[in-house]
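User: I'm putting together notes for a lab meeting next week and I want to include a structural view of one of the chains we've been expressing. I don't have a solved structure, so I'd like a prediction I can at least talk through. The sequence is below, exactly as it appears in our construct file.
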Amino acid sequence: MIVRMDKKQQASARRQLLSDIVWVISNDTLRRWQHEGKTTLAPVEVFMTAQCFCDVISGLSDIDEGIDYELDDLEDEAEGENDAMLIAVLAALQMTALSKRHVGTDFKGAITHIFERYGDHELFLPLVGQWAKKEEKQWVKGKKTDLLNYELQEIRLEGGGSEEIRQLFADMVDCSDKMDKETIKGNLLFLNRYNIDHNHIYDKEVIALFDKFGIKSTTIIKPKEYVAAKYVENEIQNVESGGTGVIKEK
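Assistant: Thanks for the context. Below is the predicted structure for the 250-residue chain, given as structure tokens.
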């Protein structure tokens, strides 16, 4: 059940998770604990394994009777002493999010069982505490853009170049259907500024993103030209009200 990925697979999976609220909230803690040696798994490996565990639990005909066996199997397979707990608790958080999104989905018994089993673990409260603290709406809005910045930093640290960055832009187009308006707005602002700072070598990719959201770019901004944050925000509002076209500030 435990998902293992190479660096390329991890990067691809992370980008697909940019719109997932549980990933947005939990990844900082998982990343820090990996660096501190508290888990042998990369953050995205913990997350994807937790998703697999959710699928297993949701498929049980009797969750109360079967969940302990599944947790035992998870603990047997886990290599690090904290790995099974992190996966199970993150799975419980994912179940909480699923229950909120899908009326009639009831994971209360499974969530309670996981919390009772691992409630005394030293990392349990920090993980759950992060979830509670970072679920605030304003934090989430900014954090989604921070994740995009993190992906760009990872590309640089791993020796990647323009080809890998162009792939990141393409991945943004692919997963944008799952994003809310605020996330789209933040990411467009961030990527547009990144393109400006790099002499517009990603114009084609930026225009593809604008086209995806129905924003028609009638001008290409000259290199190094300053563009105010209101530029993208106003255009998104314009499209939402039925208008088209990008109006460059003078």
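A couple of points you could mention at the meeting. The chain has twelve helices and no strands. Residues 137-157 form the longest helix (21 residues).

User: Perfect, that's what I needed.
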